[in-house]
Amino acid sequence: MPRTAQTVEPSTPNAVADEAWELLRTLLGHQRRRFLIAASELDLHPAQAGALLQMDPGTPRPMHELAALLACDNSNVTGIIDRLETRGLVSRQTYEQDRRVKHVMLTPLGEELRDELLARVGRTPAGLDRLSTDEQAQLRDLLRRVAGD
Fold first, then answer.
1. Is the pLDDT of residue 72 over 70?
2. What backbone phi and psi angles, to 5 degrees, belong to 98?
3. What is the pLDDT at residue 118?
4. What is the pLDDT of residue 14?
5. How far is the C-alpha of 50 from the C-alpha of 47, rounded, in Å?
6. The predicted structure's pLDDT at residue 7
7. CA distance 56 to 65
8. Is 1's pLDDT higher than 50?
9. Which of 60, 70, 55 is nearest to 118 (CA)?
10. What DSSP line would sit under the chain, residue for residue?
């Protein structure tokens, strides 16, 4: 039986914030499952799928920047990119200003797979359509404040 957040009586100063965070964790957990299923269906390791989602079509990205975005070591990114390159999804380019720096770029096949991955995981979760447009805007604005944007 799936675990759902339970209403917490505001008996402590952080009870409402704790409940909100539990609900967000639940939503993020559902999204994570969608991501893992989509990656598996597309024959991608989750790290490879994450790397594809961090690349923009037509824009080379330095490998060290990709490592930072994926919160992993540069050597791990090398392995991830090796496997994506073997499948023809990305290509490496030498950065002309510093030949030691390698940039990674999506190939046309990589762009197609990234688009398919985004189609599967990028759509709005079903529960948000239960909110009115005004409520959705309010939620967006509140999350922006929490995120510091």
1. yes
2. -150, 100
3. 96
4. 87
5. 5
6. 53
7. 13
8. no
9. 55
10. ---------S-STTHHHHHHHHHHHHHHHHHHHHHHHHHHHTT--HHHHHHHHT--TT--EEHHHHHHHHTS-HHHHHHHHHHHHHTTSEEEEEETTEEEEEEEEE-HHHHHHHHHHHHHHSSPPGGGGGS-HHHHHHHHHHHHHHHT-
Of 122, 47, 55, 43, the closest CA to residue 90 belongs to 55
Q: Looking at this protein, which amino acid is placed at residue 58?
A: G
Tokens standing for 68?
A: 């930072």
State the CATH class of domain 15-147. Answer: mainly alpha
* CB 34 within 8 Å of CB 120: yes
Asked if 96 and 120 touch (Cβ cutoff 8 Å), the reply is no
pTM (2 decimals)?
Answer: 0.80
pLDDT surpassing 60 at residue 35: yes
Look up tokens 């805007």; give the residue.
137
Residue 5 has pLDDT above 70, yes or no: no
Portion of the chain with pLDDT greater than 70, in percent: 92
